[in-house]
Amino acid sequence: MKSMNTTSLVAESADTAAPATPAAATPAASAVPSARTLLKQFQQQFPAFRDCLPLAIGIDKQILARMPDLDRKTMRTALGIHTGSLRYLRAMEKATVRFDLDGVAGAEVTDVHRAHAKETLQQRFKKEADRKKAERDAAQLAEADRLRQEKLLQLASKFSRNG
Question: What is the rounded CA–CA span in Å between residue 45 and residue 128?
């Protein structure tokens, strides 16, 4: 009997402790800006982000040097959103030079990086075209099914009146 009471007390204390843990974690989580919020901040602060210029290799180190308290994971996510955007990929596709945070030209953009941007854009456009085609095909099938059902109902009502 005693072990059951101890177990139920442990379960009760775990149940009461569980809600307090997320509440305690929430303020810390809200102190870290979201990746999109951070990206907007980068766009306001740095010409290379605002003008969507090809970023210098190692731009993350430049950002951390200026913003040492930045959450690295959030920064990497923000960089991924930025460098994966259509606008950035289009800029990279035609770029010849990379830029630092202040918009100062630096190293050249390699053919490999231009080709990667072009390939990524092509894959994205193909995926979007495939998705739209699938939607059109599904809509056509639904319309054909609706017409078939309508004709069946017309036939059924025609024969039920004559019968």
Answer: 33
